[in-house]
Design brief:
Elements (H helix, E strand, L loop, with lengths): L1 H40 L1
Amino acid sequence: MKSKLLIVAAVATITLATAACNTVSGAGEDLQSASREVEQEL
């Protein structure tokens, strides 16, 4: 029973970490896009 719980916890952790990486990556792309727009206006 403990091994199944450990596997489920590991899969959940990996899934959340992957989602967080995608979110951070998207935020970084948004910041780059905004900085390009500011550079064009200057």
